[in-house]
Amino acid sequence: MLQPSPRQKQQLGRRFWLTRRRVQLLGALTIAAMVPFFGRLLLTPELVDAATTNALAANVIAVVLAFWMRLSIEPYPGIRSSYVILPTAAAAHGMVLAFFFFTRLPYDRFAFLAGFLLHVLWFYLIYFLVQRRVRLRIGVVPIGELGKLLAIEAVNWVELEQPRADQLRGFDAIVADFGADLPPGWEAFLADAALAGIIVYQAKPLEESLTGRVRIDHLSENSFGSLLPARGYFHLKSALDWIAALVTLPVLLPVMVFAALAILIDDGGPIFFRQARIGHRGKSFKVTKFRTMRVSDNLATDARRAAMTGTLDPRITRVGAFLRKSRIDELPQIFNILANEMSWIGPRPEAAVLSQWYVGELPFYRYRHVVKPGISGWAQVNQGHVAEVAEVHEKLHYDFYYIKYFSPWLDLLIVFKTLKTMLSGFGAR
């Protein structure tokens, strides 16, 4: 959660105290947990029992859990509080509700539902009153390669003139290019800023955080530390992917049946489209999707061009356009997940013919295969569908960001943004 600078506090007036995390948490606990409890106590005291107390404890746990989830997710780029308030609150209350379901413990359903609604209402109120107006103000040490960073418009950049301690006031953070040869005066200034409790950013990681991309021209010149992502989470994620696919398959089957019928009614052709894609560690596998293009036009002589989907591609059928926009065409890939070939979240697997072309043009392209490909990914929710080499090069920056910051929190953020993408149709072709 962004904290306002002194100037922003003055602009926001008396409401700036709402940006303090402890105020937000205490307010949520009071409104979402205590209000339903005391409401039941005052209005219907004869109904107060163990279930009422359990609901109070459940709302407290859900509020704290959702708050922790938001703090873990919001530092990622391109994310605002408004994107995650409802999903994190629903996820936290859902987990607590699942606990009651499996333990059969009694709880006050009215108080629990009221707690969820008040929880969401409180944080949206904070967002609309204060947080949407908060904009970072960062002081810039004007030495080194900072051009690409300063071109990012989401931040108020202020170039510092001299390394004086009195310049520290009014900034949320300071940024410097640590790779440059900083004079002793500026190094002392940065040390003083850190001692004063002001965050000091390295330019390149801050650029990555704000853009969601890892800019890399040569694989040997990177800040990954290790070229292998966190292996512990990799194996845990694979197990969770398989379990989630098994659990959601019965829920998704009716949707898939309706999609299959719609395809048959539309043009009577095959239901599924299968294609060789490149997956984890460069291994080829057959991906399964609902067919969204006409069969005859898929038999083009130029295999590479046939594998690309253009904007308003004439090969796409009427039903196919809807399936693509809603991402329903991707649902059969749940069977690829069950076969341990794919993940729910990861870089999208490219057609084998396109992958071979990209490797020839971009030698380090194959590095994206170090993790399992996914149905949705960081590049998809930020950039959308691409095919040309120049666009793929930019897409790699997103893929490399995902690999570098490979974590459950980034996966959860992608899930939230995927839901938004499904509703908006962003990036579909």
Task: Explain what you see.
- The chain is of the alpha/beta class and 429 residues long.
- Helices cover 53% and strands 8% of the residues.
- It has 16 helices and 8 strands.
- It has helices at residues 6-12, 21-43, 50-73, 81-103, 109-129, 147-150, 184-195, 203-211, 231-267, 303-306, 318-326, 334-338, 352-361, 378-382, 389-404, 408-424; strands at 137-140, 156-159, 173-176, 199-202, 272-278, 284-290, 343-345, 374-376.
- The chain has a 4-stranded parallel beta sheet with strand order 2-1-3-4. The protein has a two-stranded antiparallel ribbon with strand order 5-6.
- Helix 2 packs antiparallel against helix 3 and helix 3 packs parallel to helix 5 (109-129).
- The two termini are 34 Å apart.
- The mean pLDDT is 82.
Major sheet: size, sense and barrel closure? 4 strands, parallel
Whole-number total of structural domains:
3
Helix content: 40-55%
For the terminal residues, how far apart are their CA atoms?
34 Å
- Strand percentage, roughly? 5-15%
Q: Could you tell me the mean pLDDT?
A: 82
Strand order of the main beta sheet, please?
2-1-3-4
Classification by helices and strands: alpha/beta
Order of helices and strands: HHHHHEHEEHEHHEEHHHEHEHHH
Cα-atom radius of gyration: 25 Å
> How many β strands by DSSP?
8
Bulk shape: flat
Low-confidence stretches: none
Number of helices: 16
